[in-house]
Amino acid sequence: MPRAGRVFFDGAVYHVYNRLARGERVFEADEAAERFVELLREVTVRDGVTVFAWVLMANHYHLAIRTGAVALDRPIKSLQQRTTRRLNAERRVFGPLWQGRYRAKLVQDQRYLDQILAYIHLNPVVAGLVEDRGVPVEWPR
């Protein structure tokens, strides 16, 4: 039985996230992280997506975004596929890079949005990746 299709709303806000497969930590490398961020910029401009917050950790990412006229699946699919193709080509490997389908949770109220924004910004703080636990802006990605 095929899985159910996703339903997206024009102008809706989503918490989007995904994790790398097999415990890989690809984005520890600055070059891979920079390319991911550049791809994120490209797809958001191309598809009219607004990014409220984002974090790229060694093995996963989180985004708080508002869609435009283009459905959410196009920018996220493009971001993940292009990242996979580039990294697989560089490492001369085949197969999936991501653990599974990305998750996209609809943000329906301001309180939930506030929680998601704090969660995203504090991700490197909670992981102990910044020296000053009160300053998440020290995290470069």
Give your account of this protein's structure.
- By secondary structure, the chain is an alpha+beta fold.
- The chain has a domain at 13-108: Transposase IS200-like (Alpha-Beta Plaits).
- Helix content is 38%, strand content 18%.
- It is built from three helices and four strands, in the order E-H-E-E-H-E-H.
- It has helices spanning 30-47, 73-91, 110-126; strands at 13-19, 50-56, 60-66, 103-107.
- Strands 2-3-1-4 form a four-stranded antiparallel beta sheet, with helices on both faces.
- Helix 1 (30-47) runs antiparallel to helix 2.
- The N and C termini lie far apart (39 Å).
- The mean pLDDT is 90.
Please supply descriptive tags for the structure shown above.
141 residues; alpha+beta; single chain; 4 strands; Alpha-Beta Plaits; four-stranded antiparallel beta sheet
- Tell me the helix content: 25-40%
Widest beta sheet: strand line-up: 2-3-1-4
CATH C-level of the domain at 13-108: Alpha Beta
Distance between the termini: 39 Å
What structural category characterises the helix and strand content?
alpha+beta
Mean pLDDT: 90
Radius of gyration: 15 Å
Going by CATH, what is the homologous superfamily of the domain at 13-108?
A: Transposase IS200-like
**H and E string:** EHEEHEH
Strand content: 15-25%
CATH architecture grouping of the domain at 13-108: 2-Layer Sandwich
Uncertain runs: none
Largest sheet: 4 strands, antiparallel
Helix count from the secondary structure assignment: 3
CATH topology of the domain at 13-108: Alpha-Beta Plaits
What is the number of E strands? 4
Oligomer: single chain
